[in-house]
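About this split. The held-out portion is used to measure sequence recovery: a designer receives only the structure tokens and must propose an amino acid at every position. Recovery is the fraction of positions where the proposal matches the reference. Here is one held-out target exactly as it appears in the evaluation file.
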């Protein structure tokens, strides 16, 4: 099961509702990807949701790939 290790997001349950108002069970899964993040100078592999990754980039805690490439040059 995909769970974000930073935000704790996991699957949620709900209903698909058709035009005829028939309710069928549905599982909503978070968009989780396995990424390597630099934390305290160490590379750490973790499962992180893309929304949490965007938030970390916005706060400046994780560098964007374009910024990292610009620093190397």
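Reference sequence for scoring:
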């Amino acid at each position: 099961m995909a769970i974000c290790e930073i935000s704790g997001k996991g699957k949620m349950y709900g209903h698909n509702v058709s035009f005829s108002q028939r309710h069928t069970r549905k599982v909503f899964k978070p968009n989780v990807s396995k990424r390597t993040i630099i934390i305290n100078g160490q590379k750490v592999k973790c499962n992180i949701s893309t929304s949490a990754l965007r938030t970390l980039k916005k706060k400046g805690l994780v560098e964007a790939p374009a910024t990292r490439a610009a620093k190397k040059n």
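Annotator remark: The two ends are 39 Å apart (CA to CA).
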